[in-house]
Design a protein that fits this description.
By secondary structure, the chain is of the alpha+beta class. It contains 13 helices and 22 strands. The chain has 3 domains: 227 residues, Rossmann fold, CATH 3.40.50.620; 70 residues, Chorismate Mutase Domain, subunit A; 107 residues, no CATH class. Strand 12 and strand 13 form a beta hairpin. The two termini are 44 Å apart.
């Protein structure tokens, strides 16, 4: 069986991904990821068109041996001549349990590494696929859930790829043994109090004894369900994504309140999947949709989904990332400088042609956010107005109004992100001899995946 598992198995997947800027491999050090990393390094031999490969190891800090595992993975990567990066994940158990929390933390770390067009390879195999299908069946999943894990999907700015989904675990075990590869054995894999481990250790061996070929047939059933799910999505004609004035992606409220509840829930799940986001809990989603239908137009129902939230504002339901806390002290912003600020996004001062905010190169305006009581006069207006009213009139969503960056100098507001420059002593088409014209730009930290 090990001879059948050759690096050429990856041709169908990898040949279509050669234009990616960077390849990453999720590398836990276990059998699955060790086999995948070794297969990838063999596949790239003698080729000069393969993107750079980096192995990513996520340290969840949940096992005493965690530091040893980091060292083991680093050693394997040195042996294979693959750059290695260890990532520390903060795992906070919630209502979904520790296993789900660790998975969410791991994927968050992976997603943060991916640039535009990058690919992350994971070593999920056929047995993982079968286990996932059974677990979802036992939880009452619908057609979409029973399609189990896709071979590829979006992940943040990049793509996730699972090239070993048709390969059984036994073939990977034989492969690492044949090549003398040392692997980590996570002791938690023997903990049958965890659903997946119980299924693997107690239930599936009974199925194998009666139906030895169950992996292939169950996988085939999952493939059929994936085709059915895809056909249903196409038949539903997913509505076009609309965006808030700041760039938050969303769906029209009408697409979620006019159809029956099951169709509305399926529409929202399909849309979330399009952007690479997991579906909410079914009961919580049903309650959220009920509130959308029954609440008045001014109401703002909100559904907390862990890594993101869904919230109504005006005529749409928007997807919001769980917002980072603002820095305790906001920085100064030098002319020509760009910054990325948690909870705010990317801001900077760029040269302007003609009218702008005139600043000397050694001046340092402050970045601030609204605290209440601020007033300014946008250059297109004749009178000063409260900043709160200006943001409301501009339809800035409520969750951004205390995070819109302000540019201040000597207590005067020079510009407001999303609104533009304000009338001030520094605004105009001519400045002092040592000054230049600048403009504030702001790219909000909105949820990606719907560009």
């Amino acid at each position: 069986m090990s001879r059948a598992l050759d690096h050429s198995l990856l041709d169908a997947t990898l040949l279509h991904l050669l234009d990616s800027p960077h390849w990453y491999v999720g590398f836990s050090g276990g059998v699955d990821s060790t086999a995948l990393l070794h297969l990838l390094t063999r596949w790239r031999r003698g080729r000069d068109d393969v993107p750079a490969i980096t192995a990513l190891h996520v340290n969840h800090g949940l096992q005493q041996q965690a530091a040893e595992w980091v060292n083991h993975c680093a050693w394997i990567c040195r042996f294979l001549d693959v750059p290695f990066k260890a990532l520390d994940a903060r795992v906070e158990a919630d209502g979904e349990g520790l296993e789900a929390a660790a998975r969410d933390a791991r994927y968050a770390q992976f997603e943060a590494q991916l640039g535009e067009g990058d690919v992350l390879f994971l070593g999920h195999h056929q047995d993982d696929q079968v286990e996932t299908l059974f677990l979802r069946l036992l939880r009452g999943a619908g057609v979409e859930g029973l399609a189990a894990m896709p071979a590829a999907r979006r992940l943040g700015a990049g793509r996730l790829s699972r090239p070993l989904l048709d390969t059984p675990r036994s073939a990977l075990e034989a492969y690492v043994a044949e090549h003398g590869l040392s692997c980590i054995e996570d002791p938690s894999n023997g903990d049958t109090s965890l659903d997946r481990n119980y299924l693997r250790a107690e239930v599936l061996p009974l199925l194998a004894a009666r139906w030895p070929g169950y992996r292939k047939t169950v996988t085939r059933a999952g493939d059929h369900l994936a085709v059915a799910a895809s056909a249903l999505r196409e038949a539903r004609q997913l509505p076009a994504t609309q965006f808030s004035c700041v760039g938050d992606p969303g769906l029209p409220v009408s697409s979620l309140v006019e159809p029956d509840s099951e169709t509305a829930a399926a529409t929202l799940r399909d849309w979330l999947k399009l952007g690479g986001y997991p579906a909410p809990d079914a009961l919580a989603l049903a309650e959220f949709l009920r509130q959308l239908r029954e609440a008045g137009e001014d109401a703002a129902p909100r559904l907390d989904c862990g890594k993101y939230q869904l919230q109504r504002f005006q005529n749409a339901v928007y997807l919001l990332l769980t917002q980072d806390n603002l820095p305790e002290a906001l920085p100064e912003l030098a002319p020509g400088q760009s910054l990325t600020l948690p909870g705010i996004g990317d801001i900077g001062l760029a040269r302007a042609e003609g009218e702008g905010v005139w600043l000397a190169l050694d001046e340092r305006p402050e970045v601030a956010v609204r605290e209440g009581g601020e007033r300014c006069r946008p250059v297109a207006r004749k009178r000063s107005t409260s900043l709160k009213k200006l943001l409301q009139e501009a339809a800035i969503p409520p969750w951004w109004r205390d995070r819109v960056p302000l540019l201040q100098l000597d207590g005067e507001i020079l510009a407001v992100g999303a609104l533009g420059p304000c009338a001030s002593e520094r605004w105009g088409d001519v400045g002092e001899e040592d000054e230049a014209s600048w403009q504030l730009y702001w790219k909000p930290a909105v949820a990606p995946g719907f560009d």
